[in-house]
Model the fold of this input.
Amino acid sequence: MRAAVVVFPGSNCDRDLAVAFSAAGAEVTMVWHKDSALPDGVDIVGIPGGFSYGDYLRCGAIAAQSPICRAVKAHADRGGYVLGVCNGFQVLTETGILPGALLRNAGLKYICKTVELKVETSDSAFTDGYNQGDVIGIPVAHHDGNYFADQATLAELREQDRVAFRYVDNPNGAADDIAGILSPNRRVLGMMPHPERAADVRHGGTDGAAMFRNLAGVMTAA
Amino acid sequence: MKARVHVMLKNGVLDPQGEAVRHALGAMGFGGVTGVRQGKVIELDLAEGASEADVAEMCEKLLANTVIESYQVEML
Done:
């Protein structure tokens, strides 16, 4: 598996994401926001958490217009894999690669704690290492994680089995308890919780490791 | 020449910050405030010849997220 992790000014989970990919056996390259192309042969792009461009204007809005994001969009349009975590999920909605938007948490507070997620589908390279219905513990750390989409979009996500994870106990007011969603081709996952922060025993939890392990398995086979 | 862009959350999109401001006003003794919506104002300095349509395109592409926000352009 060849992975590229995007670094924006203000990204702060880029290294964690790179470590999680490489622990699963990936060859990881970091790419800078001003780069206009991804390295040749990249299977998956990771868009990390953090505060790209200081969250100016809206979370992820400026990042979505950066040169590297045009390359990420082209990669996704070609059927490439993309994992956007936290601010990375916000970037994916701002680029239009995933539908909806992330609003300020309903309780207005920044939330930083491990939450329980229900795996809603195992039909994706990201979630195939879990069983549907599994409950996993993954940390969240966000101020704007309140997923919003109109009713038609929410219905489409449900009908197409594109909700990857739901919160067991919704911490932020997200519509339909949504914590993570897939693209129509199931190769792009955006999620607010941080699987890369639960990928090593020293993190205090390893429930996120199966995602990276499974991605590596799919991409090595391919 | 200038343009002023008003960006607001769409009706039906919960505005927790506006709600917090409403609660604070009530707690300060300002009665009669039944709702608060918080938005933002963006002022643009424009070269001569820029049109309202140009600014609308800027809103569509960057200044507003039309999934959740509506915008109004005021040419000054």
About this structure: Strands of chain B lie at 2-9, 40-45, 69-75.
